[in-house]
Amino acid sequence: MTLFGLEITLDLILYTGAFGLIVIGAAGIVLAHHLFRVILALAIAEAGANLLLVLSGYRWDAIAPILSGSESAAPMVDPVPQAMVLTAIVIGVGVQALAVGLAMQVKKTYGTLDMSAIRQRLEADIAGTAGIATTGSQDAPLGERPLPPADAVPVTPGSSAR
Amino acid sequence: MRNLASLLFAGGLGFLLMVFGLQFDFGNAPMLVGQAIQSAAPEQVGAANIVTAVVLGYRGIDTLGELAILFAASTAVGLILGHRHTSTKPDPDSGLILRAGGELLMPLLLVVGLYIILHGHLTPGGGFQGGVILAAAFFIPVLARPSTPLKHTGMMLIEGFSGAAFILIGLAALYSGGEFLQPLLDKGTLGNLVSAGTLPLLYLAVGLKVGAELAGLLAHLAAAEVSES
Amino acid sequence: MTPLDYLLLLSLLTVVIALVAGHRSMGGVWLTFTYAAQLGGLMLMAGLTNQPDVITSSLSFTILGQSLTWRYDALSWYFALITISAGLLSTMYTAGDWGEKFRADGGNLWLLHVAIALNVLSMLILLGSGDLLTLFIGWELVSWASFLLMILAGGPSIQAAIRYITYAMGGAMAILAGLALIYGHTDSFTYPAAANILHSLSTAHLWAPLLLLTLGFGVKMALLPLHLWQAAAYAHTPGPGAAFLGAISSRMGLYALIVVLIQLVGLVRVIELPVLFSFISARDVLAWVAAFTIIFPTFTALRQNDARMLLAWHGIGQGGYMLLGLVMGDALGSAGGLMHVFNHATYQAALFFSVAAVVYRTGTADLNRLGGLVARMPLSFLAMLVGIIGLAGLPPMNGFVSKWLVYRSLMLEGEPLLFVAAVVGTLGTILSVYKLIHNMFLGQLRVEHENIREAPWSMTAPMLILSVVVFVTGLMPGLVLQWIAGIQATVGLPVIDYSLGGLDSAQGSLDMLWVVGVLFAGFGIGAVLFYSGGRTHRVHQLDNYAGGHFLSADIRYHYSDNFYPGLMRLIGPLYRYSFAWLESAVQSGLGLLSLSTQGFYRRVAPANYALVTAVLVLLWVML
Amino acid sequence: MNQIVLIVVLPLLAAFLVPIVARMSASLGAALGPLVMGVCLWITGTVAIESAGNAFAINIGGFMPPLGITFFVDRLALLFAFLTALLVLVLWPFQGEHRPREHALTLILAAASGGLALSGDLFNIYVFYELVSVASFGLVATGRRSSAPAIRYLILSGFGSVLALVGIALVYTQTGTLNLAHLSQLAPTHLINPIGLAAFALILLGVGVKAELFPVNTWVPEVYATAPNRVSALLAGLVSKLAALVILRLLVLVFAQEQALLVMLLLGLLGVITGELAAWRAQDMNRMLAYSSIGQLGMVFVAFSIPGETGVFAGLAIALHHLVVKPALFLLAARWGGALSGLAGAAGGNLPAALLFTLFALSLVGVPPLPGFWAKLLLVMGLAEQVGPLYHFALAGILIATVVEANYLFRIVSTLFHRDSPASPAPQKHSGGDIATAGLFGASLIAAVLLLIPLSQSLKTIAQQTADAAAYRAVVTLAPTTSTLGDTQ
Amino acid sequence: MILISTVIVAIMLLAAVAALLFKNHVAAVAAVGILSLALSVLFVILKAPDVAMTEAAVGAGLSALVLALGLRRLGLWQIESSNSTQSSIQKSGEHTDA
């Protein structure tokens, strides 16, 4: 089977799947405006990487790596990448749960999940804690700083100029 | 404009990786280690499921690390969201049917989960897959009755002691003169339920740990209070 | 234990005493004695000046496969003599009333003592360096010790000190780069290995290390484009500290340049080394840098209204004479350059001491707020008079001898343009030192200074000692020239043919005994004529008139503002083209870069760069 | 000697049990962590004495190396295991309210760091790396307003992990093994090619996130600005070094090719330049330290890009120096978090802190005879010995960055000691514990000056051992059936 | 086998794209779940039953549960698409991004 002169083989398709997921995930991580979407994109990219790992241990006409009875000589697909993927999947879900927890905390602190808004409020927050005037004023329309610097040293504007 | 550039870069990444990927001799994995494990596993570990042999035997410490990651994630979520039970407005309890269904389902899930865990060294499945089902079993009451919180103490005990059990089994091997996580006990007959030495015990510890961990995690997430904006 | 060990130990002891007792009222006195002991220790090694020999310290390490050694030769001895003497006199000056007042005004006297002691120790270590690595270590120690001395006063000195340390670090890193290039060829830091490789390197390869080292050491000497830090940094250092720094600190750069240019590369090579075009040699470039270093800072000094700034700017200019003389490479020029180190140290310290005494009494060094102090502080005036004559390079003071040697050498070497440049510099010096002494000591005494007394003896004594030295070595330059001859023999320069009164050789002869004799005879005749007329009588300064008006205390007839208006109209516009714009351009460029790098670290999508880099690297791998 | 595995396992065990123990007895729970770290220190010490500097390998589970996972224990691994335990112990959250979860995460961080130091298996390294990541996300998020930096860190790190995983997959597809010794054996035939290089680049970018490698270090300023300072100290001091250690191992053993070094050199140099430049205009202490940390780690990478033992030596020296200095600086910054201009006269309130800051600043800039100077000198010597304009360019970049560094550090020092500014409010006093800990670091810095010669010699030995890939292969005995590739059928 | 794989890969990729493009977050989470399920089928085809089980249980089950809980607690659990506050944030985000 060929398409546009390119022979369509199984490996082409499978690699397209794996790398496609990674690329879509990467694009999502980079482009998404919404934090939750970024977390989803991360999961997608991880899925792609897992698929790639499984592919790396695949063998034609081999059986699943489970011995059934005596014919242990039959060729099997590589069990090691499968074990690795098993681990990677669980790691992925752990990280994802943590990310969701953090996202909740972000929402609570800043009241938004928009990436650029988070970035700006973070900047304003750090600067506010430190008592530095922020350079950009783009955070102004989005509302006041949600957290007043509670125990920050009050710095009068005059004394900050050296 | 920036979006377009990023898309281009992402596409470029895919293209480049594809180029590398297609250079491989797909379907003829070198399997240096895989082959050796396949031939050695029955004697060395005694598990019919070679993946299990790898996960708990050859790469046992990976699995320990993985458990620790789950534990760390759950602990971190607990640390971040933990101490805020003040004015959480729980979701209303679900209806009778769901509750009854949940109560019926729970023991069923427990049994299924334990089955999958205990047969992990024979058939596909094992501690992780079974653990997830256990987690579902533990978590279903919370879903059905959000107002009654998960029994944290019990979960914590299962969580702590099952993790400790995994390590202690490993240490037992170390102190009986072998290496950490060396398979102990009799290998038994390949394919029997009681075979593969300590492997099923390890998987049981993994399953309980995973189950308790995930249930705790879910409970934390479910109980978290986030101001609605 | 060699004499060098004793010297270094004594110096270390001085630091310890400063640390322990620097805050006590008698601490300064004890420290003065320990400096004197150091001088004694140095005298144990006085034999170095007679024969080209070295005294090695038993202190040595092997670290990272490199051995660190210390040793003294005639060159080190000469610079060490100046260093310890400067430390001795500065401490003596500090030990008495000046220190009490400094402390009373909120200054940290303990830190000042410690800083001076550390400076002396680090300079002695630098002067003893036995290989390139110890040279660099000593160099860094000196830089940071000076930084401590500069910054300890607080206030405006902080900015100056930060500027200094930035320049100094830049210089140090240039040196390190130069050393690294040498090391890259030899895998060793020893002088012989370095000399070997520098001799054998082709012109193209020699350039980079030579340029880097000269730039690095030149920062300390404040050679021209890198001179901006020095004046303010020295001027804002508390009085005796400024005298110490002005006397010796930046000469460390000269020491290191001698080691590199003359001992390692060899002046012959420098003279031959072509720059871009074959008719300009490295020597020419250095000489012209030195000439510009004489001219520009000297004329900047002319504009200063703060006595300390004025002196500090001159310190930069005088450094140019030393380098100019040295790179001529003949017996006279190098002797002049080397001797100028000593001479400059003596009169510069005397001048700073004198200015500090005035500041001690009046509280200001602003040239527009002083005047007529000669009647109240005659000894300080005397010290300043001797000092400025020396600084201007006029007989009978020692500055004349060294400058004469340099001029003579320039003419003999066939460098008329450089000669003119040097003379122009001297002209500026004369003009500005006149401004200095006129605005401070001559003319009308201000009303608020009516009750001022001479500075206490603890302050006048050091400056008078220095004045005597300035005069005596002017009268009998042979005293210094014997050491110079020893150095020339050690480092491999042609040796000057000196006599007690100057020199007596084929290249020219000078006998200061005669010159001074004639001069004083002239003074004597003048004095006889003046006093024998008997037409003088003393009056109060306000018992006078000007423009038909009697003078009262509120009328200022002492014109100190807008000095040299004609000259300023002539050259004033040139001051606008300052070097400061270069520095500020670098600074704002850096600031821009810094902000943009911060912008880099503040992007919205955190993983963007990871993606881009991954793609770029993979692309590069494929191609 | 196989008890060395305990330094990974015991903290994990303790971490699992801390919540339970703390429920039973609060004081016992609080004491468990430090106790275990102390035991780890002791174990590392005894193993170091027992092994007498000879490298050895442990086969986890008793399986022959390429089949099972190997822990490779040499001087470098022991050194970092020791430092891990020590640093975690010194930076242990003794003060403040006792939170068992925080202790558990710290213990996990310690265990995973030990694992990173010891592991000799590519995927096992990945697992421990992820463990370090998750633990550090959790610790970072304990700050009052650090959830947003933490999640941005998590996203970047997660993307890095995906890249690393792809890299590992590439390696595995090429060779079919994960054991570093085995990979090292196969590398000349299977990994010294574009695919190997691509795999290296991907793994480098992945692991580089923790190591503050240039383009993937955007998390550093914001995380260090908001995380608790003890956590920043741990991340900057310890975790970044362990990630660098992993990269070093991979570079020496598996990806020893010129282009890989080139990539490291370029990225490291860019890190130095951007870090120091950004620090120059930083307006608060924490971010200044963060940028400076980027610069220092950049130097480590530049050093590692020098082939052979020299580079390892220089890189280790810089890394160890930074490991001592930066945590202490972060501790000092705990109460000096505000705007830099607000620190005027802070020395008046707390002279020891200001003096310590000055000491560390001097060492960072590289003033002889402090250790920072010797580390930098090693780097300079190493770079100078290399031919090629790029190395000399890197040399110039590093030296220029040093000047910038001196400028901003001493601007701060002078601000601290600036006396005549009564208008500004006095910054808060440091807690005694912070000062004492920082003093401990300062004392060790001074001690390093006094012990310079033996220290440099032993570090050189470590570097020699680390740079010797053949010795590594010799220590790890591979199962005979897998030693060659090609007999797969 | 090629045919099945092609179909599954196509489903996967479509689900992935959909997960990023759907306005509604619930639908996006569902798409990720579908992706996981498809992936686990693919794993079965690739003779990795253990991985397939794990992917189904963890990826499709647990992960979706975690995400759904997250959505619920983040106030994004809207079955009907489009809501005003969110789009306004998005708009402001785009504005500042430019």
Comma- or semicolon-separated keywords:
heteropentamer; A: 162 residues; mainly alpha; Helix Hairpins; two-stranded antiparallel sheet; disordered C terminus; B: 229 residues
Structure description:
The complex is a heteropentamer of chains A (162), B (229), C (623), D (489) and E (98). By secondary structure, chain A is mostly helical. In chain A, 59% of the residues lie in helices and 2% in strands. In chain A, strands 1-2 form a two-stranded antiparallel ribbon. In chain A, helix 1 packs antiparallel against helix 2 and helix 2 runs antiparallel to helix 3. The N and C termini of chain A lie far apart (74 Å). Chain B contains 8 helices and no strands. The mean pLDDT of chain B is 78. Chain C is mainly α and 623 residues long. Among the domains of chain C are: 218 residues, no CATH class; 43 residues. Chain C has 24 helices and 9 strands. A 3-stranded antiparallel beta sheet of chain C has the order 5-6-7. In chain C, helix 14 packs antiparallel against helix 18. The mean pLDDT of chain C is 86. Chain E is mainly α and 98 residues long. In chain E, helix 1 runs antiparallel to helix 2. Chains in contact: A-B, A-C, A-D, A-E, B-C, B-D, B-E, C-D.
Topology:
The complex is a heteropentamer of chains A (162), B (229), C (623), D (489) and E (98).
Chain B: H1 2-23, H2 32-44, H3 50-58, H4 60-81, H5 96-118, H6 127-144, H7 152-175, H8 199-223
Chain C: H1 3-21, H2 27-44, E1 55-63, E2 66-72, H3 74-104, H4 109-127, H5 132-151, H6 156-186, H7 191-200, H8 203-221, H9 230-235, H10 239-249, H11 251-265, H12 267-272, E3 274-275, E4 277-281, H13 282-303, H14 307-328, H15 331-362, H16 378-392, H17 398-412, H18 416-441, H19 457-475, H20 478-491, E5 498-499, E6 502-505, E7 508-511, H21 512-533, E8 545-546, E9 549-550, H22 565-571, H23 580-600, H24 608-622
Helix pairs in contact in C: 1-2, 1-4, 2-3, 3-4, 3-10, 3-15, 3-19, 4-5, 5-6, 5-10, 6-7, 6-8, 8-11, 10-15, 13-14, 13-18, 14-15, 14-17, 14-18, 15-16, 15-17, 15-19, 15-20, 16-18, 16-19, 17-19
Chain E: H1 2-21, H2 25-45, H3 49-74, H4 84-97
Helix pairs in contact in E: 1-2, 2-3
